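Pasting two entries for a bug report.
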Amino acid sequence: MRVSAGDGEWVLEEVPVGQFVLDLPYFQREIGLDANRCRVVKVSGDSMEPTFRSGDPVLVYLGENQQPADGIWVIRIGHGTFVKRLQFMLGSTVRVVSDNPAYQDQVLDLTEEQPDFQMIGRVMWSPRLH
């Protein structure tokens, strides 16, 4: 699966296309997550530059009951799937941020019905983050 750092990737289905091999003891020690709940996806687009470039792999944790917290997330808005920085503000407002200053932030009020917004998983690792 690819996630957009731009105008959004339309995800019609999520089909594994291969495996990303990590040293399991290192992964469990350094990342501390259940490897079965993690997926590696590729970034597509430039809206998260310089943090991620198009083609970069990112490790996404799909754990249940994740608490909203500031960080980089894979989200779904409408039919688009994105990798974005989320900033949770007072109340029920979230700022959706692209690291590339050429893109404007979006602010969503989660108290309003937001059927098109879904937090899929938190980005936990990428070669550029560590």
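Entry 2 (this is the one that rendered wrong in the viewer):
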Amino acid sequence: MPKRLAEYTLLDWRHLRPLTQNYKTLRYRLVNSIHVHRRARKGDVGALAACIRGKKVLVTIAFSDPQLIEWQAQLMRTYVSQPVYLIADNSPDDSAEAIEAIAERHGSPYVRLPANPWGSGSRSHGISMNWLWRNIILPGEPEAFGFLDHDLFPTAPDDPFSALSTQDFYGFVRSFGPRWFLWAGFCMFKFDNVRHKPLDFGQDWFAGLDTGGGNWEVLYRHVDRTMLSEPRSWEEPFRPGLDIKDGPLQWFGAWVHEVRHAGRPELRAEKREALGLLLAPHLATAQASIAAGDPIRLSGADM
């Protein structure tokens, strides 16, 4: 949604921003409405909706990085085992085959999303969330649902849905001026309390809001943020002596976020290596549990 007319300055009017922003908003809505009716490139959408009915489901949106999904799948299987863990693959390249194999190995339902109309990472992510809401979550009617970034990892047992016993949604809150929203990479919702709302997990750039901010008008502005439970969050550099802005890792309680593209580009490989070392003892615990025969999430019969 563009800003309200009263929020535009005289300079905005001189540059015709109320008109151009409304036009671009209408174009975005048209692209979104067409995209959510497209068929998945792989996966039985009806079966996926059926397998989450009445359950809690966490959806991760994969994007061209099988290593991240392998790590996340192992740690989810060990530390956050109760919700259905659904892998929604937004990869535009051949890495989709590797990601699908990881999902199969860990017993996680998998869908390969339609080819994305947007090149921008944030827009691509938001319209993927809208497709999942329209095609799997809404018809699936889960008890609760949430979205995870593919570079977000639990490092201890956790129930990210526990806060929904006292509120309709939970996650990491980002704000811009008077507006705020749940970050798209860690957000949980009580289904029955949002099922009839026209949710839009896209951006609202004209109001300064990133992916997930499209729900400001229909959801968040009606809630007193001071009454919400929020995860404790902080940032730290991936190694001592480094400025946070040059190589950040982000924490939400027991969850660590690689912040994949943040920081100096030449340090990203080193940051990935440091993340691997940080996760190594947790992955060892997960691999030992898997080797001992812990049950996979869903059998073929469940699908």
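Dev reply: Rendering is fixed now. As a check, the viewer should reflect this: Strands lie at 56-62, 84-89, 110-112, 144-149, 152-154, 169-176, 179-190, 233-237, 248-252, 255-257.
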